[in-house]
Structure formats: C-alpha cells, structure tokens
Amino acid sequence: MISCTLDQKKIMKRIFPFLICLCFLTFACGEDPNDVTPLDAEVVFEVNLSGDYSSSFVQDSVSAFLHSSQIIVKGFDASDNTVTVLIDPSFFAAGAQVVGTHEIGRDSKPARIVVGLADGSTFFISESGSLVVTDYSNNIIKGTFSFEGTKNGDSSSTIAGTNGKFTAVVGEI
Rounded to two decimals, what is the model's pTM? Predict the structure, then answer.
C-alpha cells in the first residue's frame, strides 16, 4: 500500500491537471494527413485597369478552384469588385499544358478575363490578351496576364488590364 502525506497529495492535485493537459497536447497535436501546408508564396491577385473603369486592383481576398475541368482564379477587392481569370483546357492546342502561354479572348479561347463591378450589373469581358501560367503544382497556380475587353452589351465601352499577376491555392468544387 502506498501512503502519501498531506503535502504530497496537494502537490499531486496541482500537477495532475498539468499532466492531463500535457497528455492531451501530445496526442492531439499529431500530424493530420488532411492538414494544409503553408504556401511558399503569398497569395496575390493584382492588375492595373484602365479605360471606362480604372483602378489599381489589389485583392482583398482570392479564391481559386477547379470546375468542369476549368481552372478559375478570382480576386475580390475591398469594394466588392472582382477580376476573374478562367482557364479552359478544352480549347488548348494539341499537346498544350496548363503551364505556358495562352491566348485570351471572349469565346472559344483557352482563357478569358471577366471584370465585375460591385453594382452587380456592370461587367467587362476580354476580347484579346495573353495569359502566362508560370507554375501549377501542389494545387498552387501562379501566372501573369494582360488583356483588352469591352463592357457586356456595349462594345464602345472598353477596359484594359496590364501587369496582372496571381498566386492562389486551387481547390475543387
């Protein structure tokens, strides 16, 4: 039989919660295969817009996802304006890969750009331009772009995007 003095019992009462916490942290903080590893690069989406709508668009947030084989990268600014890059491999030339240079256009092109203004009804669609995907690995996509576009429903209202760049984590929906 083990006997403890009153002082030893008080010490054990103080140490016991600490030991429980230590055991919990030891086993609860193990590696989880579903944990997301931090990015090697900062998530970014920027483009200089000029024309009928001008802005130095810098993202407030960025989302990127795969949908029906398309890669969609979307930047949101603090005023709820959006710039979306749509990459559609179904329009790639034979043998082309995601990493590389792609033509931007409105229809039947490997890439499109859509600029949506916060009012929800004004948006511009690319007519021409160039997208360069510099890296697409480990669910991270990086690239640069420039384009010229028109307001949907009003071809006399134009927009141009220069010095565009993005880095985003691509999820699936």
Answer: 0.74
